[in-house]
Automatic annotation (TrEMBL):
<dbReference type="InterPro" id="IPR009009">
    <property type="entry name" value="RlpA-like_DPBB"/>
</dbReference>
<keyword id="KW-0449">Lipoprotein</keyword>
<dbReference type="InterPro" id="IPR012997">
    <property type="entry name" value="RplA"/>
</dbReference>
<dbReference type="Pfam" id="PF03330">
    <property type="entry name" value="DPBB_1"/>
</dbReference>
<feature type="domain" description="RlpA-like protein double-psi beta-barrel">
    <location>
        <begin position="26"/>
        <end position="114"/>
    </location>
</feature>
<protein>
    <recommendedName>
        <fullName>Endolytic peptidoglycan transglycosylase RlpA</fullName>
        <ecNumber>4.2.2.-</ecNumber>
    </recommendedName>
</protein>
<dbReference type="InterPro" id="IPR034718">
    <property type="entry name" value="RlpA"/>
</dbReference>
<dbReference type="GO" id="GO:0071555">
    <property type="term" value="P:cell wall organization"/>
</dbReference>
<comment type="similarity">
    <text>Belongs to the RlpA family.</text>
</comment>
<dbReference type="InterPro" id="IPR036908">
    <property type="entry name" value="RlpA-like_sf"/>
</dbReference>
<dbReference type="GO" id="GO:0000270">
    <property type="term" value="P:peptidoglycan metabolic process"/>
</dbReference>
<feature type="signal peptide">
    <location>
        <begin position="1"/>
        <end position="25"/>
    </location>
</feature>
<comment type="function">
    <text>Lytic transglycosylase with a strong preference for naked glycan strands that lack stem peptides.</text>
</comment>
<keyword id="KW-0456">Lyase</keyword>
<dbReference type="GO" id="GO:0008932">
    <property type="term" value="F:lytic endotransglycosylase activity"/>
</dbReference>
<keyword id="KW-0961">Cell wall biogenesis/degradation</keyword>
<keyword id="KW-0732">Signal</keyword>
Length: 118
């Protein structure tokens, strides 16, 4: 099986269980953002702080805490969802500048991660 198929097989969407959303692990691309957004309102209504451990996800509820593991180096962090995105094909999460720094991919711009609700 090719790497692309393995990633696709590992990527899971949220599933509905008894009327609630139960998050499963998702694996895919991650990027980071901050410059140009710092100090502006995030989709949640709070002021975006590029130095906070936050992230954007397309559908998870605001306030959701996620464990994010960088698949390249094994570094792991915890972030809180406070914004919507990413809006680039193949990416599952946009991380704040601080979160990208902690994971160790800020200079590269993107990485491969797995995320799991905690």
């Amino acid at each position: 099986m090719t790497k692309r198929l393995l990633v696709a097989a590992a990527t899971a969407a949220a599933v509905f269980v008894s009327g609630t959303i139960a998050a499963q692990a998702q694996c895919g691309g991650a990027s980071w953002y901050g410059p140009g957004f710092n100090g502006k309102r995030a989709a949640s209504g709070e002021i975006f702080n590029e130095n906070a451990m936050t992230a954007a996800h397309k559908s998870l509820p605001f306030g959701t805490k996620l464990r994010v593991v960088d698949q390249r180096n094994g570094n792991a962090i915890v972030v809180t969802i406070n914004d919507r995105g990413p809006f680039v094909h193949g990416r599952i999460i946009d991380l704040s500048k601080a979160a990208a720094t902690q994971l160790g991919f800020r200079n590269r711009g993107t990485t491969s991660v797995c995320i799991e609700q905690i």
